[in-house]
């Protein structure tokens, strides 16, 4: 049978290709995709030609092989229904709603071990957010927020908003977020941020400092997260973080570079820069935390956060080029864009 798959074919170009899908073999199932979510961070880097083409697509996801060079089939947030079982697969898998780390495509073959059954009470519009909440959970694990701390989050895209939702459940002294888009700042405050600022306003660092004043000994942040995708935000994070403060970098900049001012107070303040990436767990946590435990926590957070409210646009797969054009040209209009099948 034939299936349409989305390919990144060149700079700001995506197209659909017909691919032949064989019947499921032993130990395999055939899944019909219902919905997939576009990652506005990683996928836009690929779309804009800002991803390092020699880099492996993702060594932790079996469905993503090869490099990031064009043409490239990509994506990692698909929800579908099992429509056919191969020999040796247990009958309960038939018609099961599942999540898979798979590219944008109508049909795909997978082993049941590569699928995550969607918990009861959740539909495709909630389940499709699992990778984003897995990332948000990983950021929290890496940041280790403490009671009474002041925390700043740069970037309120979908991962930033979900991180804010998780952090709002901690007894923090202050939670301040920053984003250029008014609709995201409004959503951030609705999730529990004490204030959400525009990082582009000329006096933003002074306003941020005033918001933190009196909440920490030096009026600085104890912990900052940089997940805006904008390298310039990392320098702002350094400027607002205090002595021995932690800056967790969740952004992937691709081929973009970051210019940091490290000749001032950075060394004397003993600031800590730490990368965070969802495909691995920090070594100091692996005694207690496994990938399965992180995923189980992410599912629980999906149920608590109910993130389907952040879907702003739905496009049929055939209109995928319009979806990427929207995210590229008018990011202020969108929070989460999904493809339907």
TrEMBL record:
<protein>
    <submittedName>
        <fullName>Zinc-binding alcohol dehydrogenase</fullName>
    </submittedName>
</protein>
<keyword id="KW-0479">Metal-binding</keyword>
<feature type="domain" description="Alcohol dehydrogenase-like C-terminal">
    <location>
        <begin position="159"/>
        <end position="277"/>
    </location>
</feature>
<comment type="similarity">
    <text>Belongs to the zinc-containing alcohol dehydrogenase family.</text>
</comment>
<keyword id="KW-0560">Oxidoreductase</keyword>
<dbReference type="GO" id="GO:0016491">
    <property type="term" value="F:oxidoreductase activity"/>
</dbReference>
<dbReference type="InterPro" id="IPR013149">
    <property type="entry name" value="ADH-like_C"/>
</dbReference>
<dbReference type="GO" id="GO:0046872">
    <property type="term" value="F:metal ion binding"/>
</dbReference>
<dbReference type="InterPro" id="IPR036291">
    <property type="entry name" value="NAD(P)-bd_dom_sf"/>
</dbReference>
<dbReference type="Pfam" id="PF00107">
    <property type="entry name" value="ADH_zinc_N"/>
</dbReference>
<keyword id="KW-0862">Zinc</keyword>
<dbReference type="InterPro" id="IPR011032">
    <property type="entry name" value="GroES-like_sf"/>
</dbReference>
């Amino acid at each position: 049978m034939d299936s349409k798959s989305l390919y990144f074919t060149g700079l700001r170009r995506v197209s659909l290709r017909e691919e032949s899908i064989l019947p499921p073999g032993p130990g395999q199932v055939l899944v019909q995709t219902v919905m997939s979510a576009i990652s506005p961070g990683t996928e836009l880097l690929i779309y804009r030609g800002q991803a390092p083409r020699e880099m492996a697509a993702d060594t932790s996801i079996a469905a993503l092989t090869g490099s990031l060079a064009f043409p490239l089939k990509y994506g990692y947030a698909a929800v579908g229904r099992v429509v056919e079982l191969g020999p040796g697969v247990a009958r309960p898998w038939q018609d099961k709603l599942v999540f898979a780390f798979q590219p944008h495509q109508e049909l795909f073959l997978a082993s049941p071990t590569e699928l995550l059954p969607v918990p009861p009470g959740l539909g495709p519009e909630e389940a499709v957010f699992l990778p984003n909440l897995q990332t948000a959970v990983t950021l929290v694990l890496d940041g280790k927020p403490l009671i009474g701390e002041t925390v700043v989050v740069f970037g309120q895209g979908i991962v930033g908003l979900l991180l804010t939702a998780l952090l709002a459940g901690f007894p923090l002294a202050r939670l301040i977020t920053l984003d250029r888009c008014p609709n995201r700042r409004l959503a951030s405050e609705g999730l529990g941020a004490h204030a959400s600022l525009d990082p582009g306003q000329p006096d933003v660092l002074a306003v941020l400092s005033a918001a933190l004043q009196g909440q920490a000994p030096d009026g600085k942040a104890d912990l900052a997260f940089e997940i805006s995708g904008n390298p310039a935000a990392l320098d702002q994070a350094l400027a607002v973080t205090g002595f021995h403060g932690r800056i967790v970098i969740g952004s992937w900049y691709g081929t973009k570079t970051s210019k940091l001012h490290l000749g001032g107070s950075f060394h004397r303040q003993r600031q800590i820069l730490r990368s965070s990436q969802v495909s691995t767990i920090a070594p100091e946590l692996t005694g207690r935390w496994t990938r399965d435990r992180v995923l189980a926590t992410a599912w629980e957070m999906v149920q608590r956060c109910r993130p389907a409210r952040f879907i702003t646009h739905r496009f049929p797969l055939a209109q995928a080029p319009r979806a990427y054009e929207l995210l590229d040209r008018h990011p202020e209009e969108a929070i989460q864009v999904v493809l339907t099948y």
